Amino acid sequence: MPRDYDLTGGDARRALDAGLVTEDWYKTPIDRKQMKALMKRADQPAIRDTLILFGLMAVFAGAAIALMPSWWSVPFWLAYGVLYGSAMDSRWHECGHGTAFKTRWMNQLVYQVACFCMMRDPWCWKYSHARHHSDTIIVGRDPEIAIMRPVVTLKLAANLVGLVDVPDGLRRMVVHASGRMLPDEETYVEAVFYPKTYRTARIWLAIYALTGLAALLFQSWIPLLLIGLPRMYGCWHMVMTGWLQHGGLDDNALDHRLNSRTVYMNPVSRFIYWNMNYHVEHHMFPLVPYYRLPELHAVCAHDFPAPSRSIPQAYAEMLPVLWRQRRDPDFHLRRPLPDGAHPYQKGPRASAA
Amino acid sequence: MAEWIDACAADDVEEEDVIRFDHGDRTFVIVRDHRDSYYCTDGLCTHEDVHLENGLVVEATIECPKHSSIFDCATGEVETPPACENLRTYPTKVENGRVLVAL
After folding, report:
1. Contacts of A32 in chain B (CB under 8 A)
2. Using the beta-carbon criterion (under 8 Å), do B82 and A35 form an inter-chain contact?
3. Which of A275, B2, B9, B34 could join A293 via S-S bond, C-beta 3.0 to 4.6 A?
């Protein structure tokens, strides 16, 4: 069945009619005391990780600039780019949830910096992500579906270097700077925040203009390699991990075990991704901070499908499904649950079908 | 004149925690803060009607378990969006080990 991902399109109305909008989702039962301990906030882990992140960015950028114009600068630019164009995505995410730090202004500060790096307006993306959590992979409702069916391979590949996201981010910035919102944003952003979005866009455009001007004045790529371009040459890790979150799994289902994927990853990817590889756990219990997700994973394991053992294994599972979805968009993976787990909650669509 | 309703035993709510309280066809939460003060607010978050019974209580605030809107339990004021509308609060007192709320 063809899908209409437009937030103002036919599937948006159909999702509402089918009872899929802001519905109750399945939750693995967890003792309240244990849940309280899992939700508990702390500053220390995120302060440590933030100091490491910005410290490494400074070191890599410094080394890259010092080695310019030699080719030896390239690895340092690439490392800097991944921290800018990929690690900032997970910082945007965790700080947007307000779970990374216990202290609110720290969440806010890192959130604003990460939003700038990722070219995501802080208010639009706060509400976009709230909708993603309300209506995860509900077609016509979720604005953050990375892999739409049937897959357009070229579009996905182009986004490995930001060729979809960056033009879209810049277009939205220009529209916002002119004092307007886009129709999809008007479906999920509270109007009271529109003026803040307009102001942010104007400030960001000024920063990008100054960066471009500096590049021209100094006849150097360095300003652009430091600000803006890393969103393109360093975003591949974010895209690579992001596709695994929901790719090849079910849609229009009210159970995160059906539409989200947990993948065991190496420590470097987990640092860049801030443990969002525990993605089923995160969606089911979004108040649990990233540094407690491994613990939550252990608590929920008896009720969840087995996680993918590695990034390559997850891709080996997902890619054939995406390939088949080119001809059969309804096809998706359904992974077996362990013995004794609560059955999947497909939701109103099953009863309506 | 509002009526004082017996909502629960004071010990039913742990320090910095919340429980659900249903009365008639309405739903509320009873919150106990870090200083043993008690509050009663509407049970549903003003953003998308998610119940606050599974929320996180920090001092005298409650955070919605779905989208992290934070409300001041004493005043109901939104401290952190996405919620934009304040939560309704109700006078609350503890007498003889019972939490009473004026509804």
Report:
1. 17
2. no
3. A275
In chain A, residues 277-316 whose CB comes closer than 8 Å to chain B:
285-287
Shortest CB distance from B17 goes to which of A36, A41, A98? A36
Structural domains in chain A (count): 1
For residue A24, is pLDDT > 90? no
**Mutate which: A16, A28, A32, vs B, most B CBs within 10 A:** A32
Interface test with B, best of A31, A36, A93, A106 (most B CBs within 10 A): A36
Domain carrying residue A259: 10-352
Is A2 a member of any domain? no
**Rounded CA separation A4/A12 (Å):** 8
For residue A5, being part of any structural domain is answered with no
- Residue A3 placed within a domain: no
Question: Is the predicted ipTM greater than 0.95, yes or no?
Answer: no
Q: How many CB pairs lie under 8 A apart between chains A and B?
A: 42
- In terms of phi and psi (left: phi > 0; alpha: psi -120 to 50; beta: otherwise), the region of A312 is alpha
The answer to the question of residue A4 being in a domain is no
- pLDDT of res. B1: 64
- Spell out which residues of chain B touch residue A94, defining contact as CB-CB under 8 Å: none
pLDDT tens-digit readout, B13-42: 999 999 999 999 999 999 999 999 999 999
**A98 vs B63: CB contact, 8 Å cut-off?**
yes
Q: Residue A144: helix, strand or coil by DSSP?
A: coil
- pLDDT band for position A318 (50/70/90)? very high
Global pTM reads 0.93
Give the Cα separation of A250 and A236 in Å (integer): 24
For chain A, what percentages of helix, strand and coil (3-state, to nearest 5) are there?
A: 60, 0, 35
Q: Please tell me if residue A41 touches chain B, with a CB cutoff of 8 Å.
A: yes
Give the residue among A237, A267, A274, A270 at the shortest CA–CA distance from A90. A274
Q: Into which CATH architecture does domain B4-102 fall?
A: 3-layer Sandwich (2.102)
Residue spans of alpha helices (H) in A187-249: 194-217, 222-226, 230-233, 236-246
A289 token code pair? 């901070």
Of B48, B56, B63, the CB nearest to A134: B48
